[in-house]
Amino acid sequence: MTPRQSETPRRGAPPPAGISDVARSARADAELQALRASDERFRQIAASVDHVFWVIDLLPTPRVSYVSPAFERIWGYPAEAVYADRALWLDRMHPDDRTTMRRAMEDWIAAPQSYRYAHEYRIVRADGRTRWISDRGQAVRDADGSCYRLTGVAEDITERKRAERELADKRAQLDAAFTHLNDGLIIVLRDGSVPVWNHAALRMFGYASTAEVQAPLRELSLLVELCTLDGTPVPFEDWQLTRALRGEPIVQRAARLRHKVQGWEKVCAYSVTPVEDADGRVQCAILQISDITERHRHDEEIRRLHADLERRVVERTASLEAANRELEAFSYSVSHDLRAPLRALDGFAEVLQREHGDTLPHSGRHHLDIIRQSAQSMGRLIDDLLSFARLGRRPLAKVDIDTTLLVRQALRTLAPLQQDRRIDLRIGELPASHGDPAMLQQIWVNLLGNALKYSRRRDPALIEIGARRLPEGPEFYVRDNGVGFAEKDAERLFTAFERLHEGAEYEGSGVGLAIVQRIVQRHGGKVRAEGAIDVGACFSFTLGPGAAPAPERPRTA
User: Fold this and answer.
1) Would you call 485 helix, strand, or coil by DSSP?
2) 265-297, pLDDT tens digit by residue?
3) CA 238, CA 371: separation in Å to the nearest integer?
């Protein structure tokens, strides 16, 4: 490499003999021209590369005789600065590397047989930034081994060091994840060797270290038996690991593992991933395996309980069907055997009242009235009880219904309760409904009947019928200004035969609201009551999802 100044002649070199001064001068001029041309080519090359070419002459005194232009870009100092102060190079080394590099340089120069040198160190640039340098040099020595010149190349490797550090960090993270992963990971090479086990895999198979399992996969298969979940052994050739190494498709499976020496049996879930090279050849297979023995046991227990529950449901269903048949038979018995005597009782009392009423004293006629009213009340109670019992057995026949029409039909049915009364009846906008027409008609009859009955002492009576739009569908309501009820008694209203008012004051069997609740529940909805004593009551109900009819499709020509 060409130094900044002329090369120092080697010691002890005699002048060539037999050459005239003119010839020597001509040859010297030719060599000088060649040297200048070579020096120019070198400088052009040095100026075009990012590396720093450097030359240090040790004789007669140590000095930096040449650094290429890249020195200023990397160190942040011009070349003249290091020419003027040879200590600058060492001084700009990082304090943690300076002593090590000084000794390495001294040892390199002092050792007679040492020619090449390579080190990495850090420098602190003129602007304070730290850079990593890779320095490679060569010693030029005399015949006796004394070093009189050093040449070399310095390269900025900061980015490479950063990439190496990031790669090392990622590798450390992967190693930590591999080591501490809850699932077992095992790597099997193409030749069948099993060099890699993570901690979870070792624990799962009952080993303390990889040294205990450094054996080919076929030998390990003699210790561990792979079986299907039902206990059927799987031949070694059909193992997923073996098939993956042959390049066959991979699936996730669950299997039983039995260790023939340690004696344990486990249920495991596993998957195998083949790793191929650039030519598509399988180089290794990665087995991911987890112990699911407890989960499998729980699943089996759940399946057993489910099967037992299904059996009990079948038995209970059969028992309920039998009970329903008995209840139906009882209902018919009540309908025919009990209602017939009541009709006879009412009929004979009516005949007695009509044909012999004039001969009876006032108290006798009064007693006959009580007998007839009691028989008729008992008949209505039986009818309501039968209607309530039949609600659970009757199938729903849902259709789209005009709710306003249902309400007006119910009011016509309840016309006797409206005679000779001042009633402020307000019917708001009612959206269409989707349900069983007969059952929905019964809801409106019962709710409107209660509103008319319990507001009979108001003048005028106020009855409001409307609907609110909710996200799950419309909520219909009937509000009145009647006698009302205490808020704490709201839930009791829907219990069969539960009455909050005296029967002598307000007639009824106490089944109407229970029937309303049963119908609403069968439609998938909810019913609720709000009220206050002497203020009035409001009964609201929904009909569940799908209660609103589907919008009509536009007709096409």
Assistant:
1) coil
2) 999 998 888 888 888 888 999 888 999 999 989
3) 90
Give the type of residue at 74.
I
Across residues 456-481, what is the average pLDDT?
Answer: 92
CATH code for the part of the protein at 23-155 = 3.30.450.20
CA separation, residue 308 to residues 302, 319, 320, 414 (Å): 10, 16, 18, 52
Does residue 179 carry a pLDDT above 80? no
DSSP character at residue 201: H
Burial bucket for residue 359 (CB in 10 Å: 0-12, 13-18, 19+): exposed
pLDDT digits (tens, 9 = 90+) for 415-427: 888 888 899 999 9
Average pLDDT of 5-14?
A: 45
pLDDT of residue 335: 63
CB 456 within 8 Å of CB 436: no
C-alpha 106/C-alpha 111 separation (Å) is 9
Which secondary-structure segment (H or E) carries 141? strand 130-141
Pairing verdict, β 63-67 and 253-259: unpaired
19 touches 70 (CB < 8 A): no
- Burial of 461 per CB tally in 10 Å (0-12, 13-18, 19+): buried
State yes or no: cis peptide before 60, omega within 30 of 0. yes
74-130 per-position pLDDT tens digit: 999 999 999 999 889 889 999 999 999 999 888 888 888 777 889 999 999 999 999
The 3-state DSSP composition of the chain as helix, strand, coil percent (nearest 5) reads 45, 25, 30
**What CATH code would you report for 394-541?**
3.30.565.10
CATH classification code of 181-291: 3.30.450.20
Distance CA 463, CA 538 (A): 10
Amino acid (1-letter code) at residue 3: P
Dihedral angle of Cα 88, 90, 94, 97, to the nearest 10 degrees: 180
For residue 109, give the amino acid letter.
I
Look at the pTM and tell me if it is higher than 0.85: no
Edge-to-edge strand list for the sheet holding 253-259: 196-197, 184-189, 282-291, 265-276, 253-259, 224-227
How far apart are the C-alpha atoms of 272 and 275, rounded to whole Å?
Answer: 10
- Taking only Cα atoms into account, the Rg of the chain, rounded to an integer number of angstroms, comes to 53
Q: How far apart are CA 312 and CA 174, in angstroms?
A: 52
pLDDT in tens, 429-443: 999 999 988 889 989
Q: What is the pLDDT of residue 354?
A: 82
Give me the helices (H) in 263-361, please.
293-333, 339-356
Q: Region of 112 please: left (phi>0), alpha (psi -120 to 50) or beta.
A: alpha
What secondary structure does DSSP assign to 335-355, as a single string?
IIIIHHHHHHHHHHHHHHHHH
Distance CA 96, CA 93 (A): 8
Q: What's the pLDDT score for residue 42?
A: 66
Residue with tokens 């030998």: 219
95 by Cβ neighbours in 10 Å (0-12 / 13-18 / 19+) ranks as exposed
Q: What does the block give as tokens for 161?
A: 């060091």
Q: Would you say 68 and 54 are in contact if contact means Cβ atoms under 8 Å apart?
A: yes
Q: Residue 150's pLDDT is what?
A: 92
Distance of CA 269 to the CA centre of its chain: 21
